[in-house]
Structure formats: structure tokens, C-alpha cells
Write a structure and sequence with these properties.
four-stranded mixed sheet; 14% strand; alpha+beta; 181 residues; 4 strands
Length: 181
């Protein structure tokens, strides 16, 4: 999947250098929404029975007048490279590059009970103070099985201070202690 990251990063760098990062973001969002609504979009230009010319023509019909020539050029490069089936992941990689550039983190906060707006704001402020991010896109959820405490996930980092996890660790250490005697 390294190529996915390289293609996503390349699109980001081109969009940034050419001054159309904001427009590219909007177009990527539209393309990903279209893929979500109609997964067949991924299959069409990837059909081995189509020539490269037919694949590029199919690409033109998928997004007529809805994307810029720059984005169409990028999509054509993806088709020509044989990476079309990874397009959604490539575009996701682009979005990750944009979030990193703009210092925006996607955060998941899970607690045993739903939080009030004031509690959510305190958590947001604390996370902003503890991290290098300027903005946080936080999704709050409640999971009664946590019993108490909180789990915070930012990217691939996870902090689990839930009562459930502490009880599981205690149970594990007690079981290991008993097994050794």
C-alpha cells in the first residue's frame, strides 16, 4: 500500500504547489462520495478488457464537467498506472496529507456515558493543549461496557483509561499469579 500513500502525497504536493488545494479537497470529497454511492465506479476503468483509450474515455463520462482538468489529469495517471482500484485509498491518503498540513486531527473519544457539551469542551481544550494540532475533528461516543473512564484515539495513538481495561489487566495479573503457584 506504499504506492497508495505516494499517489496521495503526490496529489497533495501538486495541488499545494499549483494553488488549488482547497479546490482539490472539494473534488476529492465529491469523488469519494460518488464511489461510496456507486462502487461500480471503481470497476469500470479497471476492466482488463478495455483499452487504455477506452478507460480514459470512460473516466470522462464518470465525472463530466464536475472536476477540474488538473484532477482529470491525476485520475488519468492513476488509470494508466493500473492503480485505479486503489483510488478510494489514494484519495484517503490525500485527505490525510491535507489534515496533517493543516494540523487537523481526527479524534475518537469514548466514555461510559454521554458527555455534556461542557465536558466535551473541556476535553477538546485539554487535547488541544496536549497536542500539536490546531483543530480537532472529534467524534464522541458512549459505551457502557467501559464502566467508567475514557478512551481517546488520535490517529494510530490510543490512550485507554477505562475501568474495563484496568479490570481486565487486574484479572490477567491475578490469573497469571495463580497459574505460577
Amino acid at each position: 500500500m506504499e504506492a497508495v500513500g505516494q499517489y496521495g502525497r503526490a496529489l497533495f504536493e501538486i495541488a499545494k504547489e499549483e494553488g488549488w488545494l482547497g479546490g482539490a479537497e472539494v473534488e476529492v470529497r465529491h469523488i469519494r462520495e460518488a464511489i461510496g454511492e456507486n462502487p461500480e465506479i471503481i470497476r469500470l476503468p479497471a476492466l482488463p478488457s478495455l483499452s487504455e483509450t477506452e478507460k480514459l474515455a470512460a473516466l470522462e463520462t464518470l465525472f463530466p464537467g464536475r472536476i477540474s482538468p488538473e484532477m482529470m489529469g491525476f485520475l488519468a495517471a492513476v488509470v494508466k498506472s493500473g492503480k485505479w482500484e486503489a483510488l478510494d485509498a489514494i484519495l484517503g491518503s490525500f485527505e490525510n496529507c491535507v489534515r496533517e498540513h493543516e494540523q487537523i486531527a481526527e479524534v475518537s473519544v469514548t466514555t461510559a456515558v454521554a458527555l455534556t457539551e461542557a465536558q466535551q469542551e473541556r476535553i477538546r481544550n485539554r487535547l488541544l493543549a496536549l497536542t500539536r494540532y490546531r483543530k480537532l475533528a472529534i467524534v464522541y461516543s458512549a459505551d457502557a461496557s467501559l464502566i467508567g473512564g475514557i478512551i481517546v484515539q488520535i490517529g494510530d495513538r490510543r490512550a485507554d483509561a477505562s475501568v474495563r481495561t484496568r479490570l481486565e489487566a487486574l484479572t490477567g495479573s491475578l490469573m497469571n499469579g495463580q497459574a505460577g503457584t
